[in-house]
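Many introductory courses stop at the sequence. We go one step further.
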Amino acid sequence: MSNVINLNSLATAKWNKRTPIQNAAVFMIWFISIAFVVWCFQVMTKDTIWAFIYDAPRQMQDIGARMFPPNWTSINELWSPLWETLNIATLGTLLGTAMAVPVAFLAARNTTPSSTLLRPIALFIIVSSRSINSLIWALLLVSILGPGVLAGIIAIALRSIGFIGKLLYESIEEISPTAVEAIAATGACRPQVIAWGIFPQVAPTLAGITVFRWDINIRESTVLGLVGAGGLGLKLNAALNTLA
C-alpha cells in the first residue's frame, strides 16, 4: 500500500528547473541588469540634441549627394602625401622589426641571458610600446623632432616593437628543442645556436608578423598627419578643418 502511495506521489510531482529562491535570484539579476542598462542609456544621452538625430537621414543624404560624382581633379594633390604615408609605414615597420627582434630574444625564457634582469626589462619595453598609441608617440616626437615624416616613422617603429616583440618571443618559446640541442652538440657557441638552430624555426613567423604589422601601420600612418607627422593625415586634417 505504501509503495502505491509513493508511486502516486511521484507521478503527481511537478519538476521545476529552479527552486523558488533561485527563481527570485534570477529575477533580481535581470531586474538589476535592465535597470543598469537604462541608467547607462540616460547618462549617455543626457546631452544629446535629439533634433540633430531626427535630422540625420537628411544630412546623410545631402553628404552622399555632394560626394558623387567625385572631383577627380584634386587627386593630383594626394600622390605625394600617399607616397609619404607608404614610406612612413614601410620604414617604420622595418625599423620596428629591427628593434623588436633582439627584444624578443631577450624576453623569451629559452633564449634570454638573464631571467632576473634582462627579461623583465625586455617585457617592460614590449608592454610600454603596446600601451601607448601611435598618435601619442607622434605627439611626443613632433614636439621633440618637429613636424615631418621622420617623427611619423619613429612613432610607427616604437609602436611596432611591442606588437612584433610579443608575438615573436612567444613563437621563440614554442620552438622544437631538438635542432637547438643538435647544433649545441657540435660545439657551436650561443650566437651560432641562435643563428642556425632557433632563427630558422621562427623566420616564417617573423615574416608573417612583419607583413601583418605593415598592413596595420599603413592604416595608422594615414592619420598621423593629424598631429603633424606627415602623410595623408595632413590633407585629412585640412579637409576636416574646412568641413570639406
